[in-house]
Amino acid sequence: MSAEDRIRALPCWNGSIEIEPLPGGLSNANFVVTDAAGRHVVRFGQDFPFHHVFREREVMTARAAHAAGFAPAVHYAEPGILVTEFLGAKTFLAEDVRADLDRVAGLLRAFHREMPNHVSGAGFMFWVFHVIRDYARTLDEGGSRKKGDLPRYLSLADELERAQKLLPIVFGHNDLLPANILDDGKRLWLIDFEYAGFNTAMFDLAGAASNAGLSDDESFAFLTAYFMKEPDNEIRRSHAAMQCASLLREAMWSMVSELYLDAPGIDYVAYTEENLVRLDAALENYRTKYGTKS
C-alpha cells in the first residue's frame, strides 16, 4: 500500500480526509491530514535498532509529554504510525532559538524536571558516548567508508567524556534541532521524541546550542537562563565539549544512515560531511579555550 492508502485506511478519521505532505524529516515521512474534526499530523516510522529508535517507546513518550503539557495530543497509534494533533504553530529556525534563549531554556528546564513524573515502563538511558561507541561497532561491522576513522572518533569521544562535569540525571529530549521546537504565539512546544530518554541536561543544552549556532556569548546567556545563575568554568567546558560530542554523534548517525536508510531526497553522505566540517570548527574552538582533558 502507498502511504496515502495506509492513511486512508486508518480507523481514526471523522468523514472524508485531505492529505498533504509535511516536509522536513531525515528518517521519517510525515503528512498533514484534515478531516471533519480538524487537522492532524501523521508520522510514519519503523523501528531502527541501529539508531536505538523503538516506536513503542516514542509513542509512550509522546503521550507522557502531552500529559506533562509539552507536546500535542496523540490521537491514534499503531505499529509504524503515529497520529497527533496539528498545532498550526510556527516551526523554529536557528535564528528563532537565538532570539528566544530565555524561553527555550525555561522550556527545557521544565521538561527535564516534569517528564520523569509521566514516563512509564522500563527506563531508557541516552548517553551520547555510549551511542558513539555503539555506532562505531555498527560502522565497523557494516564496512562503512569511514571505517578507518573510527579509532580517532572513539579517542575523541573518550576525551570529550572526561571533560563532563557530574550533573543530576533528568529526562532529556536528546534531538534538539530548532525544527523540533514550535511556537503557537502563546507558548513553546516540543515534538519528535525518537531519542528521548534519561540523560544529563548537558546534552540537550549542547544540542540546542550547536544546532542553533549559538556564539560563546549566547551560550553563556543560555546556560545562565537554564541554571538560573552564571555557569562556572567546569560547566562552560562541559558544554563546549558536549557540543563537539553532539556533532560527532550526528555525523556518525549519518554514517550509519548511509548504510541502512534511504529516505527520499536525503543525501546522507553530504550530511555526514557537513557535520564533520562543523565538528572540526567546534573542536578547534573547544581545544583553543580549554585544551584537552587527561
From TrEMBL:
Keywords associated with the record: Kinase, Transferase
Record has Amino-acid biosynthesis as a keyword: no
Biological-process GO terms, alphabetical: phosphatidylethanolamine biosynthetic process
Keyword Transferase: yes
One Pfam family recorded for the sequence: APH
A GO molecular function held by the record: ethanolamine kinase activity
Assigned GO CC terms: cytoplasm
Domain Aminoglycoside phosphotransferase as annotated: residue spans: 18-222
PANTHER family: CHOLINE/ETHANOALAMINE KINASE (PTHR22603), ETHANOLAMINE KINASE (PTHR22603:SF66)
Protein name, entry field: Choline/ethanolamine kinase
Protein's organism: Mesorhizobium plurifarium
Source organism phylogeny: Bacteria, Pseudomonadati, Pseudomonadota, Alphaproteobacteria, Hyphomicrobiales
